[in-house]
């Protein structure tokens, strides 16, 4: 199981977390987020993919930031349409695209079908007041109804308290297309700064 650590802000912390060799590191470009990124991304090992997280941002700004920070992946966390994604791909043909959908107590997976040909991954987060970072886990049992073969990221309030539940989930059929576990706020000492010790424990238990 691959690991994405999102909401990085501090150069020193980015370097510390990179030593754990996560598969993805996420940088949030959204001014309303307490983890909004405005700094410098230090040189990282090539096997760690850098993800830029955007919410209903102008295509031109997304393209500019992807090129400036040499990001590998775009994560769309807003209400981006198919046409928006197609336009983005014209400018960024080599960049992978993740489209986020929030889940609470139920979800109609049919709405994903139009996106399947245009994106690389779905990401399922907990639907809440904020655009991510709500620190709550949604009911993973809903994923029994997932009717796509597109790999997905599992996000939403995942912390060390969820390790046993994760291990159980990995054994169930609905996890077969789960590609990455995405963590953020439950591993923080303060917004944007992650506890390396907690992340070590998680990595040991999901590898």
UniProtKB/TrEMBL annotation:
Its EC number is 5.3.1.24. GO terms for molecular function: phosphoribosylanthranilate isomerase activity. Pathway: Amino-acid biosynthesis; L-tryptophan biosynthesis; L-tryptophan from chorismate: step 3/5. One of its GO terms (biological process) is L-tryptophan biosynthetic process. HAMAP family: PRAI. Residues 3-203 form the N-(5'phosphoribosyl) anthranilate isomerase (PRAI) domain. The gene is trpF. It catalyses: N-(5-phospho-beta-D-ribosyl)anthranilate = 1-(2-carboxyphenylamino)-1-deoxy-D-ribulose 5-phosphate. It is an enzyme of class 5 (isomerase). Keywords: Amino-acid biosynthesis, Aromatic amino acid biosynthesis, Isomerase, Tryptophan biosynthesis. This is N-(5'-phosphoribosyl)anthranilate isomerase. The keyword Isomerase applies. It comes from Tenacibaculum caenipelagi. Pfam families: PRAI. Belongs to the TrpF family.
